[in-house]
Amino acid sequence: TQYNTTANRFEVGGSSGYKLDERRYIVGALRYENDDFSSYEYQWTASLGFGYTAIKNERTELSFEIGPGYKRYRYVPSVQTIIDPLPGTGSTVIVGPEQDGEIIGRGLIAFKHQLTTSTAFENTFLVEAGSNNQFIQNDTGLAVSMTDALALKLGYQIRRNSDVTPGSKKTDQLLTTNLVYKF
Fold this sequence. Notes:
- The two termini are 40 Å apart.
- Helices cover 0% and strands 70% of the residues.
- The protein has 183 residues and is mainly beta.
- It has a 9-stranded antiparallel sheet with strand order 1-2-3-4-7-8-9-10-11, with no helix packed on it. A two-stranded antiparallel sheet has the order 5-6.
Protein backbone atom coordinates (compact mmCIF):
# COMPACT_ATOMS: atom_id res chain seq x y z
CA THR A 1 0.00 0.00 0.00
CA GLN A 2 1.29 3.41 -0.95
CA TYR A 3 0.22 6.51 0.95
CA ASN A 4 0.21 10.08 -0.31
CA THR A 5 1.01 12.68 2.30
CA THR A 6 -1.36 15.64 2.07
CA ALA A 7 -0.31 17.46 5.23
CA ASN A 8 2.82 17.57 7.36
CA ARG A 9 3.32 20.43 9.77
CA PHE A 10 4.78 20.92 13.20
CA GLU A 11 4.70 24.01 15.30
CA VAL A 12 6.35 24.92 18.58
CA GLY A 13 5.59 28.02 20.54
CA GLY A 14 5.51 29.52 23.95
CA SER A 15 5.12 32.70 25.89
CA SER A 16 6.12 34.01 29.26
CA GLY A 17 4.78 36.96 31.16
CA TYR A 18 5.70 39.29 33.96
CA LYS A 19 2.73 40.55 35.98
CA LEU A 20 2.66 44.28 36.59
CA ASP A 21 -0.55 43.98 38.64
CA GLU A 22 -3.66 41.76 38.71
CA ARG A 23 -4.69 42.68 35.14
CA ARG A 24 -1.64 44.02 33.27
CA TYR A 25 1.48 42.12 32.23
CA ILE A 26 4.48 42.19 29.90
CA VAL A 27 4.65 39.17 27.58
CA GLY A 28 7.38 37.65 25.43
CA ALA A 29 6.35 35.11 22.78
CA LEU A 30 8.18 32.78 20.39
CA ARG A 31 6.70 30.64 17.61
CA TYR A 32 8.35 28.31 15.07
CA GLU A 33 6.56 26.49 12.27
CA ASN A 34 7.67 24.02 9.62
CA ASP A 35 5.02 23.08 7.03
CA ASP A 36 5.82 20.87 4.03
CA PHE A 37 2.73 22.08 2.16
CA SER A 38 2.94 25.84 2.54
CA SER A 39 4.84 28.53 0.65
CA TYR A 40 7.44 28.63 3.42
CA GLU A 41 10.00 26.03 4.48
CA TYR A 42 9.82 27.61 7.91
CA GLN A 43 8.60 30.69 9.74
CA TRP A 44 9.61 31.90 13.17
CA THR A 45 8.56 34.91 15.17
CA ALA A 46 9.72 36.58 18.35
CA SER A 47 7.80 39.38 20.02
CA LEU A 48 7.57 41.44 23.17
CA GLY A 49 4.32 43.08 24.13
CA PHE A 50 1.76 44.26 26.63
CA GLY A 51 -1.07 42.08 27.92
CA TYR A 52 -4.30 42.92 29.65
CA THR A 53 -6.73 40.52 31.36
CA ALA A 54 -10.15 42.07 30.87
CA ILE A 55 -12.15 39.31 32.57
CA LYS A 56 -10.98 36.75 35.09
CA ASN A 57 -13.40 34.96 37.36
CA GLU A 58 -14.22 31.35 38.29
CA ARG A 59 -15.78 30.55 34.90
CA THR A 60 -14.47 33.04 32.33
CA GLU A 61 -11.12 34.47 31.23
CA LEU A 62 -10.54 37.02 28.48
CA SER A 63 -7.16 38.55 27.75
CA PHE A 64 -5.56 40.67 25.04
CA GLU A 65 -1.92 41.00 23.97
CA ILE A 66 -0.31 43.41 21.54
CA GLY A 67 3.23 44.36 20.67
CA PRO A 68 6.01 44.52 18.10
CA GLY A 69 8.05 41.56 16.93
CA TYR A 70 10.26 40.15 14.23
CA LYS A 71 9.47 37.39 11.72
CA ARG A 72 12.00 35.37 9.74
CA TYR A 73 11.01 32.95 6.99
CA ARG A 74 12.38 31.00 4.07
CA TYR A 75 10.38 30.50 0.87
CA VAL A 76 10.11 27.02 -0.66
CA PRO A 77 12.34 26.66 -3.76
CA SER A 78 10.40 27.32 -6.96
CA VAL A 79 10.77 25.89 -10.46
CA GLN A 80 10.90 28.39 -13.32
CA THR A 81 11.06 27.62 -17.04
CA ILE A 82 13.10 30.01 -19.16
CA ILE A 83 12.14 29.96 -22.84
CA ASP A 84 14.80 31.05 -25.32
CA PRO A 85 13.79 32.53 -28.69
CA LEU A 86 15.00 29.44 -30.57
CA PRO A 87 12.61 26.43 -30.48
CA GLY A 88 13.69 23.69 -28.09
CA THR A 89 16.29 25.79 -26.30
CA GLY A 90 14.32 26.44 -23.12
CA SER A 91 15.67 25.43 -19.76
CA THR A 92 14.26 24.75 -16.33
CA VAL A 93 15.83 26.49 -13.37
CA ILE A 94 15.21 25.80 -9.71
CA VAL A 95 15.33 29.08 -7.84
CA GLY A 96 16.87 28.50 -4.45
CA PRO A 97 15.06 29.26 -1.24
CA GLU A 98 15.05 32.91 -0.42
CA GLN A 99 15.16 34.02 3.20
CA ASP A 100 13.49 37.16 4.33
CA GLY A 101 12.52 38.88 7.54
CA GLU A 102 10.37 41.77 8.62
CA ILE A 103 9.15 43.74 11.60
CA ILE A 104 5.66 42.63 12.59
CA GLY A 105 2.86 43.61 14.89
CA ARG A 106 1.56 40.72 17.00
CA GLY A 107 -1.89 40.59 18.52
CA LEU A 108 -3.60 37.83 20.48
CA ILE A 109 -7.05 37.43 21.99
CA ALA A 110 -7.53 34.46 24.36
CA PHE A 111 -10.96 33.45 25.67
CA LYS A 112 -11.85 30.56 27.95
CA HIS A 113 -15.22 29.75 29.48
CA GLN A 114 -15.96 26.88 31.88
CA LEU A 115 -19.30 25.45 30.67
CA THR A 116 -19.55 22.81 33.40
CA THR A 117 -17.18 21.56 36.10
CA SER A 118 -15.53 19.26 33.55
CA THR A 119 -16.09 21.02 30.19
CA ALA A 120 -14.47 24.21 28.89
CA PHE A 121 -14.72 26.18 25.65
CA GLU A 122 -11.51 27.90 24.47
CA ASN A 123 -10.77 30.26 21.59
CA THR A 124 -7.45 31.89 20.70
CA PHE A 125 -7.05 34.38 17.85
CA LEU A 126 -3.50 35.27 16.73
CA VAL A 127 -2.38 37.91 14.22
CA GLU A 128 1.21 38.46 13.05
CA ALA A 129 1.11 41.27 10.51
CA GLY A 130 4.00 42.75 8.57
CA SER A 131 4.40 44.63 5.31
CA ASN A 132 5.02 41.42 3.28
CA ASN A 133 2.70 38.91 4.92
CA GLN A 134 -0.23 38.86 7.30
CA PHE A 135 -0.58 35.60 9.23
CA ILE A 136 -3.86 34.91 11.04
CA GLN A 137 -4.70 31.83 13.08
CA ASN A 138 -7.83 31.00 15.07
CA ASP A 139 -7.97 27.97 17.38
CA THR A 140 -11.30 26.87 18.83
CA GLY A 141 -11.62 23.93 21.17
CA LEU A 142 -13.84 22.06 23.56
CA ALA A 143 -11.99 20.32 26.42
CA VAL A 144 -13.51 17.68 28.68
CA SER A 145 -11.55 16.82 31.83
CA MET A 146 -11.32 13.14 32.75
CA THR A 147 -9.10 13.66 35.83
CA ASP A 148 -7.22 16.62 37.33
CA ALA A 149 -4.33 15.93 34.93
CA LEU A 150 -5.99 14.43 31.81
CA ALA A 151 -8.51 15.88 29.37
CA LEU A 152 -9.85 15.15 25.90
CA LYS A 153 -10.00 18.09 23.51
CA LEU A 154 -11.71 18.54 20.17
CA GLY A 155 -10.11 21.39 18.23
CA TYR A 156 -10.71 23.30 15.02
CA GLN A 157 -8.07 25.59 13.52
CA ILE A 158 -8.22 28.07 10.65
CA ARG A 159 -5.00 29.76 9.51
CA ARG A 160 -4.26 32.16 6.68
CA ASN A 161 -1.12 33.61 5.09
CA SER A 162 -1.74 36.55 2.76
CA ASP A 163 1.48 36.01 0.77
CA VAL A 164 1.69 32.54 -0.79
CA THR A 165 3.34 31.12 -3.89
CA PRO A 166 1.16 30.57 -6.98
CA GLY A 167 -0.80 27.33 -6.66
CA SER A 168 -0.81 27.39 -2.85
CA LYS A 169 -3.94 27.99 -0.82
CA LYS A 170 -3.97 31.01 1.45
CA THR A 171 -6.25 29.36 4.02
CA ASP A 172 -5.85 25.99 5.76
CA GLN A 173 -8.23 24.23 8.12
CA LEU A 174 -7.47 21.52 10.66
CA LEU A 175 -9.75 19.40 12.85
CA THR A 176 -8.04 17.60 15.75
CA THR A 177 -8.73 15.35 18.69
CA ASN A 178 -6.18 15.59 21.48
CA LEU A 179 -5.25 14.01 24.76
CA VAL A 180 -4.16 16.86 27.05
CA TYR A 181 -1.91 16.37 30.06
CA LYS A 182 -1.74 19.20 32.60
CA PHE A 183 1.27 19.49 34.88
